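note to self — DONT lose this again. spent like an hour looking for the file last time. sequence + predicted structure for the chain T wanted, 174 res
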Amino acid sequence: MILTGPAIRAAVRLGDIVIDPFDPARVSPNAYDWRLGDTIRVCDVDLDAAASTELPEQVIPPEGMVLLPGLLYLGITHERTGSERYAQLLNGDHTIGGLGIWVHVSAPLGHVGHAIRWTLEIRVARPVRVYPRMTFGKVVFLAVHGSRLSYQQVAAKYARSDGIDISHLYRELQ
């Protein structure tokens, strides 16, 4: 079950959902409009699933940055979101989809207990200029059934994520 906008506001007030920074004007009928953060990593090299790849982090300047087709960009959400009570789904929306931007298609699930600024996988169909803190998608909160186990209490690869994270699959393949 997806929480409605009023239920999201109430859960934030009660501390059951963390959205930091929180702007009540960004709550929609059943989601929260999240923004692109201030930094990005550009992947313009071949990748190997069995090796860690260092990608330098860049600041997105106030005048924006043009993203190009054929490259993988790893960005970050401006907001940190999470909950010990609700799961999350993070997606792009028509706001950016209409610009030919695909964001976070492969990993939209935020587990119960995962309170982070999300690493974003970004691809574009055409060159497009993006700006720090522009609206970039929606996060929805989902009620869960059954006993809850916090993501922070399991040995998960990304439990302590703090910034733009590269793939950690190489740890499993070593």
